[in-house]
């Protein structure tokens, strides 16, 4: 339900974390333009938080707390569909060029490859049960709030 973002530079490979960058010279920080669009779509921005700021962070929580998510509560499919319809709605954007489409496809393939690799690593590292020698450490870590579960050897 959350993402961190950076600005993809015109070369299609590099990113910028510069929140003041105005790459299109329209006298508006590109970063804040992304934030404004995200807020219009219903995202909450970490830059608005009072306790600490997390400038690249965007999230949609559907009115649920972190504790509710941890307890397994999830938004309804109708809530998700409503957000996706706003996100996927086409506006007055210029159509993508062939080069932009190719770059997007390459990025999507990279993201999918990374997701597949993470899943493979998680599956390989998962144990059927926490080893006996690690049980107390898991209990202590859960009590300290560092670990949310030790179920299924996670």
What's the quick description here?
42% of the residues lie in helices and 8% in strands. Strands 1-5-4 form a 3-stranded antiparallel beta sheet, covered by helices on one side. Strands 2-3 form a two-stranded antiparallel ribbon.
Overview of the structural elements:
The protein is 42% helix and 8% strand. 3% of the residues are buried. The chain has a three-stranded antiparallel beta sheet, with helices on one face. The chain has a two-stranded antiparallel sheet with strand order 2-3. The chain is mostly helical. The chain starts with a strand and ends in an 11-residue tail after the last helix.
The count of DSSP E runs of length 2 or more, i.e. the number of strands, is 5
Count of helical stretches:
5
Approximate strand percentage: 5-15%
- The H-and-E topology, N to C, reads as EEEHEEHHHH
What is the rounded distance between the termini? 21 Å
What is the gyration radius calculated from CA atoms?
Answer: 20 Å
Could you name the ranges where pLDDT drops below 50 across 5 or more consecutive residues?
none
Report on the biggest sheet.
Answer: 3 strands, antiparallel
Oligomer: single chain
Q: Numbering strands along the chain, what is their spatial order in the largest sheet?
A: 1-5-4
Helix content: 40-55%
The pLDDT mean sits at 84
Query: Which structural class do you get from the secondary structure elements?
Result: mainly alpha
Q: Quick one: overall form? A: globular
């Amino acid at each position: 339900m959350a993402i961190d973002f950076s600005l993809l530079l015109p070369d299609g490979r590099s990113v910028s974390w510069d929140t003041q960058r105005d790459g299109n010279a329209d006298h508006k920080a590109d970063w804040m333009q992304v934030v404004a669009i995200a807020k219009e779509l219903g995202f909450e921005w970490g830059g608005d938080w009072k306790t600490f700021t997390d400038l690249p962070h965007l999230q949609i929580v559907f009115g649920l707390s972190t504790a509710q998510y941890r307890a397994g509560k999830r938004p309804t499919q109708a809530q998700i569909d409503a957000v996706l319809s706003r996100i996927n709605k086409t506006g007055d954007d210029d159509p993508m060029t062939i080069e932009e489409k190719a770059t997007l496809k390459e990025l999507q393939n990279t993201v999918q490859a990374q997701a597949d690799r993470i899943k493979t690593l998680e599956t390989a590292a998962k144990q059927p049960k926490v080893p006996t020698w690690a049980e107390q450490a898991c209990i202590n870590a859960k009590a300290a709030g560092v670990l949310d579960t030790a179920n299924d050897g996670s």
